[in-house]
Write a structure and sequence with these properties.
With 142 residues, the chain is an alpha/beta fold. The protein has 7 helices and 5 strands, in the order αβαβαβααβαβα. Strands 2-1-3-4-5 form a 5-stranded parallel sheet, sandwiched between helices. The radius of gyration is 14 Å and the shape is globular.
Length: 142
């Protein structure tokens, strides 16, 4: 077992938590889903921002604990999707923590993610330890 696999093993904090993973690359989606499932998350996926907004809009408050959002996607990019989620009428849905998961890593990219309403920014390729540490913080795990 590699160090990354040991790092991603199920954690009590993540058990029963549901994430929405928004990613247009099937390979990236598959890898992230494996890491997140191994950490204990239930993961649902969307391949573009429009679908993510629709899924969140149709969900009950508390259904998704957080969203991992790619930035560059077809149909609706991650910034627009985040702004649309933040504008939802149900406040509990509008306040779901959204984490940017993107190859765009310049300072202006981080600032644009925060300006759109994202609570954190993670670079691709994904560093498993940083991903899990960020999710612990977003979900207020100890």
């Amino acid at each position: 077992m590699t160090a990354a696999e040991r790092t991603a093993e199920s954690e009590p904090c993540f058990a029963g938590k549901r994430l929405l993973l928004v990613e247009d690359s099937a390979v990236n989606m598959h890898i992230a889903q494996l890491i997140l499932n191994r950490a204990g998350f239930a993961v649902e996926t969307a391949e573009n921002g429009r679908l993510a907004v629709d899924m969140v809009s149709a969900s009950e408050p508390g259904y998704y604990n957080a969203i991992l959002m790619d930035i560059q996607m077809p149909v609706m990019d991650g910034y627009a999707a985040t702004r649309a989620i933040r504008a939802l009428k149900k406040q509990e849905l509008a306040e779901i923590p959204i984490v940017a998961l993107t190859a765009n890593v310049f300072r202006e990219d981080v600032e644009a993610a925060k300006a759109a309403g994202m609570v954190a920014h993670l670079a691709k390729p994904v560093d498993v330890q940083k991903l899990l540490t960020t999710l612990r913080g977003v979900l207020a795990c100890r």
